[in-house]
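Thread title: Can someone regenerate the structure for this chain?

I was given the following input by a collaborator and told the matching structure tokens would be attached. They weren't. Posting the sequence so someone can regenerate them.
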Amino acid sequence: MYFLNKDLVFPPVSAASPEGVVAAGGDLRPDRLLLAYRSGIFPWFEDGSPILWWSPDPRMVLFPEELKIRKSMRQFMRNTTWKVTRNKAFRQVIRECALIKRPGQAGTWITAEMIEAYTHLHEMGYAQSVEVWEEDELIGGLYGIDLGHVFCGESMFARKSNASKLGFVKLVETLRDENYALIDCQVYTEHLASLGAREIDREEFMQILNND
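Best answer:
Regenerated them for you:
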């Protein structure tokens, strides 16, 4: 296990454990977080535990042109009165992502420390949010890190059915129009697979990430 110190450096992702752990320790200061994402690495840990830095192989990604929207969802999108915005309520979105209960998880990896760190990145223009509103109520959303050609998705939440999916679809459509290479979804979920995301080798992911 590689343990980080105050120096701003990560080992190569090829040194990751079979589970995908690259390193442990360090901190969540902005320059370290940005270096991590630009290096194909992201933090994921429980409150009270050391920071763990991950680069899984394979990597779950969505190429924007491969987005799948089911017929029922297209009909819903045509008829809904919900509004989708971007970067209007970042702190509220990340807090909601921390609060939402998820199957098989007793708690959240979005600690108070992470909320402050990513809010700082948002203020710097790197962390982005998508919000879904029913009138003035925030009912869904997501956030992630924008690297300019790759969007690194972190978490999403929904208070009503289809809310997070609507926000995600709208984001992907925007990124497709802006010629983004891919959306990093990190690890496999059936929900993401149903939207067209798929696993690729870490080596292929790194080639795309470094081709900016």
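The domain at 60-200 is CATH 3.40.630.70 (Aminopeptidase).
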